[in-house]
Design goal:
five-stranded antiparallel β-sheet
Length: 317
């Protein structure tokens, strides 16, 4: 509105990306030399024939928001008055909340009001606050930001002659998209045979399989995939993080867009038949509640993200 003497702006906080250049094709032996020189840890030289150049690229737009990642932005309250104006702006306050698909979340602003609270916002200056929120739901999100301030008219004697409090609100809308698609399957392992040659049902064993598909626009690296069993179950990882003395350590898998990685866990019930929790928690239809799957990954520029599934259950016998 034209009568406002302060404005509100939102700036997305994100890491830059690698800048690419597209040189003409070279002979195979020339390409190997260039790649070795450009990627060498002690090399300070650059080559215009390598696909990556020394510059980083800032995002041209707001970018994509993904479930599991941290949404970060800066809120800027700007004093639009000209220098020498008879009006002054004081008591500037910013408040924000996130309207997720299923709830409203009040947001903490950094720095807090007690740390930075100028009594007067000078013309041309701005008050900045940072908002951070872990996105846990898919779908439409609305960031609602409220700005309030006092507008005071000063007399020639530099005393306040009149003033009023102004408040306005702005909405910023974006869509949180899934970064990882998780598909799980639980299969019961056939019970063992005890000494009496009868099936032993006291120790249930399950094979948990999960397919992780990268739904993002760029590559990601899986940092950790862990299964959190619910008592009395225990789990054993069957993935790349298993240490074996006869094999070299395996690097965490990197998934390009639409790549799929499969992980597996062995979920077992303890043998103690006298334990009060040996039966475990079950649903109304008799299915055993096994636990939850926790997944951590990083983007190409190192941003950390986290996702946890709901309770995973065994099939009904």
């Amino acid at each position: 509105m034209a009568d406002k003497k302060a404005s509100l702006a939102l700036l997305s906080l994100s890491r830059p990306s690698f800048s690419h250049q597209f040189p003409l094709p070279l002979q195979p032996h020339e390409s190997r030399k260039i790649a070795f020189k450009a990627l060498g840890p002690s090399s300070k030289e650059t080559d215009e024939n390598f696909i990556l150049n020394p510059l980083l690229t800032l995002p041209p737009a707001f970018g994509s928001a993904y479930v599991g990642a941290c949404f970060s932005c800066t809120l800027c309250a700007n004093n639009e008055l000209e220098a020498g104006s008879e009006k002054i702006i004081t008591s500037v306050k910013i408040a924000a909340e996130m309207q997720a698909p299923s709830s409203k979340i009040p947001l903490d602003l950094v720095p807090v009001e007690e740390e930075v609270s100028p009594s007067q916002l000078e013309p041309g200056k701005s008050l900045q606050k940072i908002v951070r929120l872990e996105l846990r739901e898919e779908g439409n999100h609305v960031l609602a930001v409220s700005l309030s301030y006092s507008e005071t008219i000063m007399s020639n004697e530099h005393s306040a002659s009149s003033g009023r409090v102004r408040t306005f609100r702005k909405l910023y809308q974006f869509v949180a998209q899934p970064c990882l698609s998780v598909r799980t399957k639980v299969s019961e392992i056939h019970p063992g045979i005890d000494e009496g040659k009868k099936p032993n049902f006291s120790n249930q064993r399950f094979a948990l399989e999960a397919q992780l598909e990268n739904m993002a626009d760029g590559p990601i690296t899986l940092e950790d995939v862990a299964f959190r069993p619910k008592s009395p179950f225990r789990s054993t990882s069957l993935n790349w993080d298993v240490a074996r003395p006869d094999l070299d350590p395996v690097d965490a898998p990197t998934l390009t867009p639409r790549d799929v990685s499969q992980v597996a866990f062995l979920v077992e019930q303890p043998d103690d038949p006298h334990s009060s929790s040996s039966a475990g928690e079950r649903t109304k239809d008799g299915r055993a509640v096994l636990g939850q799957l926790d997944i951590r990954w990083r983007t190409a520029m190192g941003d950390m993200a986290f996702l946890s599934t709901g309770w995973l259950m065994a099939r009904r016998r």
